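This part of the workshop introduces the protein records we will be handling. The structure tokens are whole numbers drawn from a learned vocabulary of backbone shapes. The record below serves as our worked example for the rest of this section.

===
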Amino acid sequence: MINTTIAKIFSKVSVKTVCISTLLFVFLASVLGLFALPGLQTQYSLKQFLPVDNPLLQRDEHTKQVFQLSEAQPFIVTAKIKEDGETWFSHDKIQSLKSLTDLLANYPGVKGTLSLATVQGAVNNKEGLSVGPLLQNLPHEKWQTETLANPLISPTLISEDAKTASVIVNIKSLNTKDLLSLRQNLEVTATAAVPFAHIEIGGTPAVQTDVGVLLQTEIRNFVVLGFLACFLVLGLIFANWSPLIISFVTIIFANIIVLAIMALAGYPFSVLSTTIPILTTVDVVSLIIHTLLRYAEEQKNQPHLTHQQRVVYTFKVLLGPNFFASTTTMIGFLSLLMTKVPLIRDYGVTAAGAIVIGWLVTTMTLFPMLYFMQGPKARDWAWAKARWGLYLFRRSGIWAFLIILVCSALAIKGQGLSWSARLFDDLPANHQVRLSTETIDRELGGMIPVDIEVKGPADSWNEPKLLARLDQLLSELRTVEGVGSVVGLPDLVAAANLHHSRLPASRSSTAEIFFLYSLSSASPLKNFLTTDSANTRISVRTYDLPSNQLHSVVDQIREKAKAAFPQMNVEVTGMGSTIHHLNNELSKELIFGFWHSMIAIALVLVVVFRSVRWAIVACIPNLVPPAALLGFLAISQTPIKPSVAIIFSIALGLAFNNTVYLLERLRYMQKKSKSKELEIERTLWREGNPCLISSLTLLAGFSVFMASYFAMNRIFGFYMLLSMLAGLVGDLILLPTLLKSCPWLLGPVPWKKEKVMATTAMILLTLFVAMAPIPTHAQLPTAEKLGEEMSQRLRSRDEQFVVKMKIIEADGSSKDREMKIWRFSPQKKEHYLLVRMQKPQDLKGTALLATLKGEQEDKWIYLPSTKQTRRLTGESGQGGILGSELSTEDFDFNRDQAAQNVIKKEAEIGGKKYLIVESDVNATSSSYSKIISYVSSVEYVPVKMECYDKQGKLLKTLDFTGYKKVSGGKMRASKISIKNVQNKRATVIGLAQVKIDQGLTAARFTPKALAED
């Protein structure tokens, strides 16, 4: 359709006019885009990777509102004494610290400052009660002992060795430009005010500003290095200058237009979107290489054509493949729109837009420039046939088998992914912001806030006994490994120092202390106690621990708080309790989400190839990159973050490029050839080198990420390179060798082979689903736990029972049967079922034997009238038991042990609660792709199942009622109702005389045994 449209355009307007017009249009768009580039901003924040409207975050916001905590994180200025043997506890140094604190408070955008020199306190001495700056009211000889023992001050404002002090600068909500200006002013002022100390600027705002500056440098470096890498590859491919000139101009135009549109649309540069210039560059160069090498090929194949005619021919032939290759890449990025994280959604939009714009600019620039310029002269090795494919085809079956085997092993290994990321391990090593962050984390009580809110009735916390219990909890929390500092209401009460004891002995004494704090203009009490004295807050700061360790610390904190106040409502909020949990859930969603990309791309390819089979075959080699990523991430124990998890969808989109070119060329050659055999060798010979070279360009482009300041980008670059290498293996080795060994995958084949092909392809497609991490929900039991509970109630090695069956036809007519059934399941993929008819009389003695070993299912039937046992094959072996809608595997009570189960949600139906469980049985079932079960939340037995066929459509439903306990404590439904929603038939069966684990053996389930009873 695209080629037809272009042909019509060319028939009405001269080619030369079209070329000049498109070049002028792109040139003007690029010039106008230059004026928009200054509006492009850089942005970085820890919250960028957090989802919107999440209950955990909403609860966190509620805590901040209740205790009047600042929305904006503060700057933290750290000052470490340079001279050995000196501390901050001298009059001149404290005076310098006070001057600095006051100076910083006067900058625009600053709400207030706090340091050791200005911290408020109450001192009860012989002269009376003094309220104000603590050090002013304390004798100098008590400065060190009093402050270092006060949790309100140490280690937050002064380190335990008294050599590092901090100034906390609370700020208003500022934009990136104002934050950067304030950060620079803080550093200059602090360095001048305390020249005897080493100054570092830390805190979340400092991370944002410093990373923003580094991002700008990173972008410039990426653009330059990306250009150099791509042009190096181009220089190795082509022997003349015209390809380099065309590529240079096209890359410049494409990048300018992409960045200008980002600026106009208000999309800033983030840590993720720094990849946009590289993506644009490598996408453009890949399209150029495929086009120019095809031109060089046609120059040899069609020497009679003029240069201009050859350009037009190449343009028409490759317009579709170029577009569809870009489309598959775009879909990989668009799959990121499924997440609830604005940063990742924005990145998905901008990256997908960059791919589309790159294709459009390349199309509108490459062909006109090639039309007017000298044709490319490819070096011999570049346009020569890919003779290296001959070696692959000699051992095609072995190559395909080995690749599938290795990928399966890697996918299985991928179950052991590492969830041990730290929040700040992405910051550049030895950079100032990383050093200051580590200083705060190590010496000043930790970087990660965790808040505990304990809720009780009004005036609860005026009670001394509760305060004492809370004080004991604070002491226990400080002993938890990983906790840097703990501050709570008892610390404020003790700091008032009104009594000889640490805490007051009466409610009236407590009220006096609260009143004392109200005299201070900046009372900290509001941050720890609500006005009705009903709710109190404990402020905990932990070290920047790996996520799994931090999760354990938060769990310990929560358990200790609930144990201390079992009659009160305890909630744990704050960054430490939310950010890793949300990041891990998001990462699992992104990793599992590559299937969204796969499905979307497959649907597009169904339209492109006009064939479901071709689309499925196109998906098979592109399972290699996700399998390789899962395996190597697990082997290297790389901590999983969202920035790593997005590689799955991106890599999948890029991997499909070569697949599209190869299969498009194969389809093109099949149309020209009269032979019915697949032209796979010729396809690889002609398209292998262009695909290999364009992939090398992608590798060269993404290799620049290895020079990044940020560990995140370096990891991103490494695994992108790994995924592209895996994609090469899938496209240039697995796909050709698989088609060579199994030509019936795409060629016309008999019905039986068609069935084998479809089954094999679907098993390959679903193999990796079973290995991919599945998101879990904390409020529901795990799938493993549910499986254990169900197994205890249902699983048996063997059993026998009597069944009364009513088969109801679509027209409403019915027939009754009674039979005795024996079942034996010695292991997961080995099942035996023997059915012997009791009623009606004319079927009495008829027996059926079904065996399932691995993927091989066999059936035999014994006919008493002839006393013969016959094997059922073909169509006769595919129906239900004795013509009913009940299949062999419907009696498989061990299915949950082999399937990949996901608990979707809990639902209430008819006043009872059920767990909705989705089981992926595609690789283990001969009839079903998935089964959705409704499992009782109380009894842990299934009450309903929805079985879907191999095409994903609902096939039949099973309802289980009248559960009873049988021998061995197992549960069995006394009635099972089965309805086939596709053929409208139904079967109702009743179970009786159930016996469990009677010691049956495989010898009982043989064709010979059918005739013996």
Observations:
- Residues 749-778, 874-878, 893-897 have pLDDT under 50 and may be disordered.
- The first strand starts at residue 75 and ends at 81.
